[in-house]
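Long-time lurker, first post. I've been practising inverse folding by hand and with some scripts of my own, and I keep getting stuck on stretches where the structure tokens seem ambiguous. Below is the full token string for one chain I'm working on. Before anyone asks, I'm not after the true native sequence, just a reasonable design that respects the backbone. If someone could post their per-position residues I'd love to compare against what I wrote down in my notebook.
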């Protein structure tokens, strides 16, 4: 399944990736994030503003969440965690797995990634985009160099245009600018900020 190609342009969707408590707030997030913790608060606040702006504009908002329970982990995931001393995050039903700073509206789609990075590995995500005629994904959320990048990479390979909201994401392992430049160069991603609504809601080909 791939992005529809029957028309020169298609719909835009704002995709909010893993904006959850264990990644953005509380002791788990504080222990993992190596930068200024206020950066995560700013990312969350800006993403919430982008969500509200998209709703007012009539742009679809799609939410993606991560659950990391060991029952969902593959052998390589479990081995990595054992070697590096990592503990599972965003356990299903826990406070850590709840959305942070954003709440999906009843009519907005929510997709769950079971111990994986890429939103396209969550059941129904791609089918939802294709059935709705979406060809352009605007990505926000965390982390830029992990789940956001994994989703952007697959999106590009499947024919979707990608835009990154630079003030609505942060990297975990790499400098922010390094991963954003990588996505610009490799995926042709457009980068802008949440307050430039007229830019990021516009299909890149128009």
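-- Answer (accepted) --
I ran through it position by position. Result:
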């Amino acid at each position: 399944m791939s992005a529809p190609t029957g028309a020169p342009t298609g719909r835009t969707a704002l995709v909010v990736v893993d904006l959850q408590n264990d990644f953005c707030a509380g002791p788990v997030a504080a222990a993992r994030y190596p930068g200024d913790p206020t950066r995560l608060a700013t990312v969350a606040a800006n993403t919430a503003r982008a969500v509200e702006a998209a709703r007012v504009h009539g742009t679809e908002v799609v939410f993606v969440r991560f659950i990391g329970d060991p029952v969902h982990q593959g052998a390589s995931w479990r081995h990595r965690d054992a070697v590096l001393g990592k503990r599972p995050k965003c356990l299903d039903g826990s406070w850590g797995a709840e959305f942070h700073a954003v709440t999906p509206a009843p009519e907005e789609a929510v997709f769950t990634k079971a111990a994986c990075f890429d939103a396209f590995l969550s059941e129904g995500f791609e089918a939802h985009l294709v059935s709705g005629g979406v060809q352009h994904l605007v990505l926000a959320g965390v982390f830029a160099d992990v789940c956001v990048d994994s989703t952007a990479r697959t999106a590009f390979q499947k024919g979707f245009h990608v835009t990154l909201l630079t003030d609505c994401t942060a990297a975990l392992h790499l400098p922010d600018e390094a991963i954003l430049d990588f996505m610009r160069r490799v995926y042709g991603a457009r980068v802008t900020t949440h307050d430039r609504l007229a830019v990021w809601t516009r299909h890149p080909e128009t």
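A couple of notes from the structure itself: The two ends are 24 Å apart (CA to CA). The chain has one domain: 11-200. Happy to go over any region you disagree with.
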